[in-house]
Amino acid sequence: MATTNQRNLAQPVSHAAMREQIVLPGGMSYLIRRDDYPNPIGVWNYHPEWEIHYIPEGQGFAYVGDYVGPFKSEHLILTGTNLPHNWISPGAPSLPGRDLVLQFDADALIGIRNVCPEFDVLHRLSSLAARGVEILGPEAAEIGAKVLLLHQTQGRGGLTLFLDILNEIEAAPRKRLLASEHFISFYNEQSDKRHRRIDQAIQILQSDPVKQMHEVADMVGLAPSAFSRAFRRLTGMNFSHYSRSVRVWRARTMLAETEMPITGVCFEAGFNNLSNFNRYFRMETGLTPRAYRMAARIRGRSIVAAA
Fold first, then answer.
1. For FRET with 283, which of 3, 116, 157, 214 sits at 20 to 30 Å CA-CA?
2. Can you give the pLDDT at residue 155?
């Protein structure tokens, strides 16, 4: 296993990565897309999902953790949970379809390997994915061709192909680890602290959604400005939007499960006036509170009738 000797050529490790929000398509174990370069989401970013990144044609610099090195056509890398990364082609005004991006919740798939042993390959790859690993030699193009084919199938019989890609990455004879062990140790320690504080903040909001940002920031031991940045990076939304979503979620539950008047639901959920409640509820659900309650009751009756 080769290790990199190219690092810290340009991008500072301390530069804050943005959290990419990934939503897997319904009924699928993975998301695959083809991105143009440049792309609004093509920034120094991280996410809990693993990513297989294939560039059929192009050149530039790859950034993975504290690794910086050149890439060229037929470039294939696997990155693991929350490992920051980016690919830049300096001076290229536009490269249509430069990036094939395959993303999946490896932790969830590893968790079912007892009943689906095919996914044990992810458990075996986890130590490599944690640091990021580049596939070298002709195998990179061979695996990349399957990534291209998976994109073309768009879910039709793709699971077998997805597993083939994972197994061939594991079997590839030439690989290069990218991020250093020091970076992973330091970054994970700092990341874990941020995650714990934001998780604590989310729990506070879920139990008391009327809390203001400065109150929650103080409760988790962060300055409001640092808390605001960390909250957005780790949740993908700002504090006020998340707080509003929690309040709407509470209101939806009360509308569906109680006979409380709508005005009572408004204040119990944490809104301070009925006008804001109606406006934000409709923004989040597409329905007025009254229409949502009626729909919930119709659904409840249909479930009872079908039982």
1. 214
2. 67
DSSP 160-199: HHHHHHHHHHHH-S-EEE-S-HHHHHHHHHHHHHHHHHHH
Q: Within a 10 A sphere around the Cβ of 85, how many other Cβ atoms?
A: 22
Distance of CA 217 to the CA centre of its chain: 24
What value, to the nearest 5°, has the Cα angle with vertex 56 and ends 54 and 62?
Answer: 55
* Maximum distance among all Cα pairs of the chain, rounded to whole angstroms: 67
**HSE-CB of 24 using CA atoms within 13 angstroms:** 17
Where would I find the H helices in the chain?
Answer: 106-111, 120-131, 138-153, 158-171, 181-207, 213-220, 224-235, 239-257, 262-268, 274-285, 289-306
Q: Around Cβ 196, how many Cβ atoms within 10 Å? A: 11
Please list, in sequence order, all residues whose beta carbon lies within 8 angstroms of the beta carbon of residue 208, skipping any fewer than 6 positions away: none
What pLDDT, on a 0 to 100 scale, did the predictor assign at position 274? Answer: 94
Torsion of CA 13, 15, 21, 24, to 10 degrees: -20
Over the chain (307 residues), what is each successive 10-residue block's mean pLDDT? Answer: 47 54 86 90 85 96 90 97 89 88 96 94 96 97 97 84 97 95 74 71 81 92 88 77 85 87 92 92 88 77 48
Decide if 154 contacts 142 (C-beta within 8 A).
no
Q: What is the model's pLDDT at position 56? A: 97
3-state per-residue secondary structure call for 1-16: CEECCCECCCCCCCCC
Distance between CA 265 and CA 280 in Å, rounded? 13
